[in-house]
């Protein structure tokens, strides 16, 4: 049935690239692609380059609201816009490529369910990763209705010479020197029973790859181009060694979705990212926040232990939210909390810093302090160039996406440093044009300069 539906799908004459500011703003364009029958209604593969997984779920949104687009778009935010599309049945496989500094979810491949909690009516998941449990999003499978199974593949991209680039102030000479992928997915992916039945077209020329299943051809051209660019900086043996390692891992991954339609999604904070709360608060204040909001991991992965941990975490967060809401309303509000002494020190430290601190924002910052912090790594120009080349190499192993979405993430929370975003965007678009030769770029964000 899926193959019959796919045969009826339309093809874009030129691959569209939609660039937005906040990442959740790409969802309407994906919906339009489904509505115009360029994307299938189900079984989409979502390839996601980002410093953040973006896999949380709007905590209080009713599951049925995924079918009410006006409510959905108002509810989604930058950290929780992908899983609702899983619940709606559109996405069946998420591939999260993360940069070297990200540890929110370890490199692995897992499958789990997303469904409607029969108690709350909200979207929840059976995944027992701390990333979900710490946000109180876990729910046992037997309590879920309208379940959808999703596969999540997490891969860390570590460019070759990366450690050297971290020691150099400006590693320009190290740029574009090949990559390795620091993962161990051979066993997990090789156990899959997926088989690739699509033909690899050779009807491509060097100006453009028109066939949707032209991954091998794109990879070959990209590899040859990288060799030419790098011929003066390192040996062909270095290239072949990294390419062989890369091929074995990415070809296994591509085999699992080579006959499916996929969306290529890139957040520019993949290349350089900052934790806005570390920028906003002093080390002292941020340290107190981490202490207050510390997440006690479950002792084991039994349903009972995970459910208990979820309940305790929910209680911890709701109590802290209530306390800081009270202080936000009245600086001298009575505090009834086991950590009262620390909360008072934190309150006074914030009032010493500014006249009217935003304690609701402080709570939002605290909620990001679970077992891992938000990533913070402002890259040098040389490191950005290394990462752009690394992304190009990995993408070249896949067939052409149906559409490309891109987020700048530079205004609302400044996850991508505002002084770097234009350069990163320019390099990323150039990289995509090198791969696909022709893309239809649409800037779906407001230019701040035009509003001055």
Task: Give a written overview of the molecule.
With 452 residues, the protein is an alpha/beta fold. The protein has two domains: 2-275 and 377-451, no CATH class; 277-367. It is built from 16 helices and ten strands. Strands 1, 2, 3, 4, 5, 6, 7, 8, 9 and 10 form a ten-stranded mixed beta sheet that branches. Strand 4 and strand 5 form a beta hairpin. Helix 8 runs antiparallel to helix 15. It is globular.
Mean pLDDT: 85
User: How many structural domains can be distinguished in the coordinates?
Assistant: 2
Helix vs. strand class: alpha/beta
What ranges have pLDDT less than 50 throughout 5 or more consecutive residues? 171-210, 226-243, 448-452
Strand portion: 15-25%
Distance between the termini: 52 Å
Number of strands: 10
Q: Biggest sheet, open or closed, and with what strands and sense?
A: 10 strands, mixed
Shape: globular
Number of helices: 16
Order of helices and strands: HEHEHHEEEHEHEHHHEHHHHHHEHE
* Rg measurement, Å: 23 Å
Helix amount: 25-40%
């Amino acid at each position: 049935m899926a193959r019959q539906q796919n045969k009826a799908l339309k093809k874009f004459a030129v691959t569209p690239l939609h660039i937005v500011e906040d990442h959740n703003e790409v969802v309407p364009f994906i919906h339009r692609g489904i509505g115009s029958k360029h994307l299938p209604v189900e079984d989409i593969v979502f390839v996601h380059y980002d410093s953040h997984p973006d896999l949380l779920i709007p905590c209080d949104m009713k599951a049925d609201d995924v079918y009410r687009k006006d409510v959905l778009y108002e509810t989604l935010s930058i950290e929780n816009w992908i899983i609702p599309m899983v619940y709606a049945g559109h996405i069946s496989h998420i591939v999260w490529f993360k940069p070297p500094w990200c540890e929110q979810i370890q490199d692995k491949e897992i499958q789990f369910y997303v469904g409607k909690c029969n108690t709350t009516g909200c979207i929840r998941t059976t995944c027992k990763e701390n990333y979900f449990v710490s946000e109180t999003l876990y729910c046992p499978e037997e309590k879920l209705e309208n379940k959808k199974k999703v596969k999540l593949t997490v891969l860390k991209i570590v460019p070759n010479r990366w450690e050297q680039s971290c020691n150099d102030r400006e590693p320009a000479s190290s740029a574009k020197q090949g990559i390795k992928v620091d993962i161990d997915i051979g066993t997990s992916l090789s156990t899959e029973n997926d088989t690739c039945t699509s033909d690899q077209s050779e009807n491509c020329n060097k100006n453009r790859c028109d066939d949707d299943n032209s991954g091998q051809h794109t990879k070959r051209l990209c590899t040859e181009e990288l060799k030419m660019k790098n011929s003066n900086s390192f040996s062909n043996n270095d290239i072949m060694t990294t390419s062989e390692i890369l091929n074995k891992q990415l070809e296994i991954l591509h085999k699992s979705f080579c006959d499916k339609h996929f969306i290529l999604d890139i957040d520019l904070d993949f290349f350089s990212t900052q934790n806005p709360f570390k920028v906003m608060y002093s080390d002292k204040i941020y340290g107190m926040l981490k202490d207050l909001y510390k997440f006690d991991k479950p002792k084991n992965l039994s349903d009972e232990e995970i459910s208990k941990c979820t309940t305790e975490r929910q209680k911890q967060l709701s109590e802290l939210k209530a306390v800081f809401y009270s202080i936000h309303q009245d600086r001298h509000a009575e505090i009834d909390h086991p950590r009262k002494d620390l909360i008072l020190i934190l309150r006074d430290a914030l009032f010493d810093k500014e006249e009217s601190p935003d304690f609701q924002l402080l709570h939002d910052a605290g909620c990001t302090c679970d077992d891992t912090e938000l990533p913070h790594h402002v890259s040098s120009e040389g490191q950005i160039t290394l990462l752009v080349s690394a992304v190009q190499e990995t993408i070249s192993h896949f067939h052409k996406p149906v559409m490309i979405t891109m987020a700048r993430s530079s205004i609302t929370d400044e996850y991508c440093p505002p002084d770097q975003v234009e350069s990163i965007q320019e390099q990323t678009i150039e990289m995509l044009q090198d791969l696909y030769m022709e893309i239809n770029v649409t800037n779906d964000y407001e230019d701040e300069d035009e509003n001055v």
